[in-house]
From TrEMBL:
Membrane-spanning intervals of the chain: 593-615
PANTHER family in the cross-refs: ALZHEIMER'S DISEASE BETA-AMYLOID RELATED, AMYLOID-BETA-LIKE PROTEIN
A GO term from the CC aspect: neuron projection
Main localization, broad class: membrane
Keywords, ordered alphabetically: Disulfide bond, Glycoprotein, Membrane, Signal, Transmembrane, Transmembrane helix
PROSITE patterns cross-referenced by the UniProt entry: APP_CUBD, APP_E1, APP_E2, APP_INTRA
SMART domains tied to this protein: A4_EXTRA
Protein name (record): Beta-amyloid-like protein
Organism of provenance: Daphnia pulex (Water flea)
Record-level GO BP terms: axonogenesis; central nervous system development
Lineage: Eukaryota, Metazoa, Ecdysozoa, Arthropoda, Crustacea
Region of interest: GFLD subdomain: 39-135
């Protein structure tokens, strides 16, 4: 009996302890769970249309579980508007504006049949994502894959149609569609573009290992700040350039290491070194090409995301401005000032859209004319839509004649001021598709003219540099030829002098002694004629010996070396007394110069004497050159003044009068 009581008490205590342990564990779990951030779940709904076994639609709750909506009596939601309303109903706290079908089917359990409380059915369906404000998805681009996008504002297609478009674009490149995401919405489950990633169908892995991309995508692709979109985009481009530069640096370093390895191998095994070089060259060519393709792909992805976000921001501004304008028109009584402000806001948003479209088209004309030509029709259609919406917004004032009379003239001037910045026609003229096409063609012609001008300038610079190069080469050749000619002239002079010396030596040894009687009979006139004749013959022979390319300037500076008189044995060289006549004439000329200078000196001296005499006489006549005159100090100032005047030759008329009277 005692043992039974003890056993019962032990069971009770153990039960109490187990209960406390479970409570403690739950408390600890609760404390840890309070610190863990809740999982972010994307709003989704799932609908199955089965007429035989109707099922309640389901939605995903905040914990990520599928829950059946038993309150909804409409079991088959085929219309897109109905699915959008269902999203707004089950997610009341969210701003749901659109829906899109998921790319893959999902297996969902616990479907509840209509009119039954038991939920045991399992179905595989493609759920619908409930979208809020537009946010582009960040698609990961694996190695050897390509990112691209297709945007056409004139096409408002469903999810499946854009999926087929992306698959077709990949197939055109002999690639396979890997992933895609829709772009800007233009209606309920309708969109105006798609971005996608294409990969090779059968990836062949060789020894080429391209640079590994960063493990995480760029922050620009995962974070969106509308107020800093432009700055974030420029920062993303800068980061991309830095990563590309780092990859290029790494490749160059690896190539340098392989080059050193090739040099070491070439000293021991030349054939193996050449094979190694050929293999490494092919490897690095593929590596560089892969890196360049990856860089182009990343730049294209950044540009596409930036374009999406800019268009999304513009559409958001247009939507807010249209809401403000319609609310102002629906007020009772209507507020003219508020209507005017809201209409200005709408016109600014529409002008911003038009300005961005034109700027984007111009940008494409500069960097990718073929892409601009492909998007030309879509751009024209988009500009026409903006024009139509602008004129319709002004026509909405027709039901308020008084307000229309006040506001419309102001809005016309406002539109003209906005359009003057772009130099495009006013929308009030109801521009047609042809006029918009003319505007875009004018931009194209302007770009083509600028490119032609740049090409002409480039060709002119190239021709100018070529002319400068040829001119420098010509100057160098002329300088070189001039130096060569001078060297040739010097060599020719040396050879000629040597030949003349040899000729003189031969003449002195071979010629007989002159007859003394003949020498006595020779007259000075004959000697002079013989000398002149000899000089002419030497000059003629020197001219014949000169090469044809010797410059005239070099010939002018050529001087014959004077010959030594005792090296010649004929009388002509020793009879130079005839030249004494020149010395005498020179003495006579010098004597006449001396006489002229002496006569000029005497004349100059006489002139100086005469001048001094005349100057002395003039000074003698001057009255204030006579010295000092004593003046009585007791006289009055008037008398002293009169005395000074008299000294200078003044005579008082009164004195003359009395002197004449006497």
């Amino acid at each position: 009996m005692w043992n039974l009581k003890v056993f019962f008490i032990a069971i009770v205590l153990s039960a109490i302890s187990v209960t406390d342990i479970f409570a403690y564990v739950e408390a600890v779990a609760g404390s840890f769970g309070s610190d863990v951030a809740p999982i972010k779940v994307e709003p989704q709904v799932a609908v199955v249309c089965d007429l035989r076994n109707p099922l309640h639609p389901q939605y995903m709750d905040s914990t990520g579980k599928w829950v059946s909506d038993l309150e909804n009596k409409s079991y088959c939601l085929k219309d897109k508007i109905e699915i959008l309303d269902f999203c707004r109903k089950v997610y009341r706290g969210r701003n749901i504006t659109n829906i899109v079908e998921a790319p893959r089917s999902v297996k969902i359990d616990n479907w509840c049949k209509l009119g039954h409380r038991k939920c045991k059915t399992t179905q595989s369906v493609k759920p619908y994502r409930c979208l809020g404000a537009f946010q582009s998805e960040a698609l990961l681009v694996p190695e050897q894959c390509v990112f691209d996008h297709v945007h056409n504002a004139s096409r408002c297609w469903s999810y499946d149609e854009w999926n087929a478009t992306a698959a077709t674009a990949c197939s055109a490149r002999d690639l396979k569609l890997r992933s895609f995401a829709i772009l800007l919405p233009c209606g309920v489950d309708l969109f105006s573009g798609v971005e996608f990633v294409c990969c090779p169908r059968a990836a062949t892995l060789d020894d080429v290992s391209p640079p590994k991309p960063s493990p995480t995508p760029d922050p620009y692709l995962t974070h969106y700040n509308p107020k800093k979109e432009r700055d974030d985009f420029l920062d993303a481009e800068q980061r991309l350039e830095e990563r590309h530069r780092e990859r290029v640096t790494k490749i160059m370093k690896d190539w340098s290491e392989l080059e050193d390895r090739y040099q070491d191998l070439h000293s021991t095994d030349a054939k193996g070194a050449e094979e190694f070089k050929h293999k490494m060259t092919n490897r690095f060519q593929k590596l560089v090409k892969s890196m360049e393709d990856e860089d182009v792909m990343e730049k294209r992805q950044l540009s596409a995301v930036h374009q999406q976000r800019v268009l999304a921001a513009i559409n958001e501004k247009k939507r807010d401005a249209m809401t403000c304008y319609t609310d102002a028109l629906n007020e009772n009584p209507a507020n003219t000032h508020r209507i005017q402000k809201c209409l200005e806001k709408l016109l600014r948003a529409l002008h911003k859209d038009r300005h961005h479209s034109i700027s984007h088209f111009r940008h494409l004309l500069n960097i990718n004319p073929s892409q601009a030509q492909r998007e030309k029709d879509a751009t024209i259609q988009h500009l026409n839509d903006i024009e139509r919406l602008t004129n319709q917004s002004l026509q909405m004032l027709d039901r308020f004649p008084d307000i229309q009379a006040k506001v419309v003239p102001l809005m016309k001037d406002y539109l003209l001021a906005l359009r003057s910045k772009d130099d495009t026609p006013s929308p009030l003229l109801m521009t047609s598709r042809t006029s918009e096409e003319d505007v875009l063609d004018s931009f194209k012609a302007e770009i083509v003219a600028k490119q032609a001008e740049k090409e002409r300038q480039r060709q002119a610079d190239k021709a100018r540099k070529e002319d400068e190069r040829r001119r420098d080469e010509r100057k160098k050749m002329e300088s070189k030829n001039k130096k060569q000619n001078q060297l040739d002239s010097s060599a020719e002079d040396t050879v000629k002098d040597d030949s003349s010396a040899k000729l003189d030596m031969t003449t002195s040894t071979a010629s007989p002694k002159p007859n003394k009687a003949m020498g006595d009979k020779m007259k000075p006139k004959m000697i002079k004629e013989e000398i002149v004749k000899k000089d002419k013959m030497k000059e003629k022979k020197a001219k014949e010996d000169l090469p044809p390319y010797v410059d005239a300037q070099a010939v002018q500076h050529m001087q014959e070396r004077p010959k030594v008189a005792h090296a010649q044995n004929h009388q002509i060289a020793h009879n130079e007394a005839g030249f004494s006549v020149r010395h005498e004439s020179g003495h006579r000329e010098n004597r006449s110069v001396y006489f002229t200078l002496a006569f000029a000196g005497v004349a100059l001296l006489a002139a100086m004497v005469v001048g001094l005499v005349l100057l002395k006489r003039r000074h003698a006549r001057s009255p204030h050159q006579q010295g000092f005159i004593e003046v009585d100090q007791t006289v009055t100032p008037e008398e002293r003044h009169v005395a000074n005047m008299q000294i200078n030759g003044y005579e008082n008329p009164t004195y003359k009068y009395f002197e004449a009277k006497e």
